[in-house]
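Task: sequence in, structure out. Protein: SDR family oxidoreductase.
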Amino acid sequence: MTLAITGVTGQLGRLVVAALKKNGVSEPIVGIARSPEKAADLPVEVRAGDYGDKEALEAALAGVDTLLLISSSEVGSRVAQHRNVIEAAKAAGVKRIAYTSILHADTSPLGLAEEHRATEALIRESGMAYTLLRNGWYTENYAASIPGALQAGAFVGSAGEGRIASAARADYAEAAAAVLAGPGHDDAVYELAGEGAYTLSEFAAEISRRAGREIPYRDLPQADYAALLVSVGLPEPLAAMLADSDAGAAKGGLYGNEPDLARLIGRPTTPMAKVVEAAMA
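Result:
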C-alpha cells in the first residue's frame, strides 16, 4: 500500500513524514511537492505536483492507495486547488483520502472554515473513502508572536476570554500519520483538540513567568487588531484572517474537548507551556 502526502515540504508535511518513519511504517511513502528540490533531504520518494496543475497531480498520484491532502496555504484559492487534488486522486485510482480540515468545520464561526466546509463536501462527493482530520489551532500560531510581545511589552490579540484548545503542530502530524498507516479510519471525522485549554491572558501569563517580567494580554477590537498587524508588516489578507480567527476564538471557535487527538497519538497532547518554553529557549 503506497502512501502519499501533499505539501510535503511544508512544516506539517515534514513532521508527518518524520512521524511515519519514527513509527516504523514499511509502506512506500511518496511526497508531493511543488518544488521537489526543497524535499531533497526527506527520506521518501518525491514527485512534482502543484495544487494548480491537475494533470501533474494525477501523474504524481499514480499507484498511490492512500493520500493525505494537507490544506493549501493560499486562503481564498483553496477550494479550486483542493478540487484539483481530489479529482486527480480519483482519476489516479486513489482509494482513500485524508484531509486536514478545521476544528468543528460544520459549525465554526471562523471565516477560515468556509473553504474547509466546501472541501469536505467535495471529498464526500468523490466516492473515495475519507478521513476528515479537523485540526484545532497550532499553539505555534501564537508562539510565533512571542518575540514581538517581549519587544512591545504586551501580548496583543482579539480573542477576549475565549478558551483555546490548541496543540503542538507535531501532535497533529502524529495523528495524521496514525490515520495514514492504520486501519479503521474509513469515513471517519475526528475533532482534534488539545487538552488543557487556555485564554490568551493565560498564554501571556506563561510568557511572563518565563520572561521574569510582566507581559500582559491586551485585547483589541477585531478591526484594531487587524490594523495593528498590518502596521507591523503583515499583508492585509493575512492580518484580516488572523484577526477574524481571534474574534472567532472569542466565540468559542478554537475550543473543543473531544479526546480524538490524544487517542490517535496514544499520549497526552503537548501542553501550551511546553511550546512557549521551546519558543523562548
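The first strand starts at residue 3 and ends at 5.
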